[in-house]
From TrEMBL:
Reactions this protein catalyses: L-aspartate 4-semialdehyde + pyruvate = (2S,4S)-4-hydroxy-2,3,4,5-tetrahydrodipicolinate + H2O + H(+)
Subcellular localization, as worded in the UniProt entry: Cytoplasm
The keyword Amino-acid biosynthesis is assigned to this record: yes
Protein name, UniProt field: 4-hydroxy-tetrahydrodipicolinate synthase
HAMAP family, A to Z: DapA
Pfam families noted in UniProt: DHDPS (PF00701)
Amino acid sequence: MLQGSLVAIVTPMHADGGLDINSLRKLIDFHVDAGTDGIVIVGTTGESPTVDVEEHCLLIKTTIEQVAGRVPVIAGTGANSTREAIELTQKAKTLGADACLLVAPYYNKPTQEGLYQHYRAVAEAVDIPQILYNVPGRTGCDILNDTAIRLAAIPNIIGIKDATGSIERGTDLLLRAPKDFLIYSGDDASGLALLLLGAHGVISVTANVAPKLMHEMFVTAMTGKVQEARVINAKLFALHQKLFIEANPIPVKWVLQEMGLIGAGIRLPLVTLSSQHHDTLRKAMAAAGL
């Protein structure tokens, strides 16, 4: 159920930084129609650090309503406060999310034991499937594989989004984790490689702008059509790279605006894409046929 190309969807905003709920609804339909296998709402790409709790819940609620059971909805509910993570996760369950994605606590740099106790506390407090999210380049905190394997023994911790970009670490997880523990690539540039090694899906930034191709890449990889998957990945590779030419989600929101899918809104301290990168991203769009 929670396999395939899952989009780490952006949060559309008006020019003043307010939420653009109508554009979010249209964006969700765009993804479902294009074959996206699941929607991850209010993750890093959804600007979770700068939405308040009321907005956070509104985004989850709107997504669940608009999806209407057509694909799974995974709610980002991580926080650097365990109490806040429990509160957000409980709210997501009450609203009807299928699962939650919990980023590693950022800034306060817990030890590996602290990480274990944090995730264990959330899992024991809220009975909903939970996915760990390890992105040390953003959080300053790394969920080591030994800790992830230890957490995999907790029944409702069902998987991990590995955004380290390390094939070695991903392979180690795939070899050591329980067979029913879901491992997702959170790094688009190395996503196909991890899929071919046995990962269960991607939680993707690129899927925001190329959902059909990302879905097709997953399907071809999973059905043994490796050459076809490589061809698709080659078309997407410039996007995989250049969508991070500035801090995510600055570039991906700019591309979506170019495609006419959202407006120009983004919330401070993030600002719109520097003009010097426009041509670079347009070339990446052209290579992918956007």
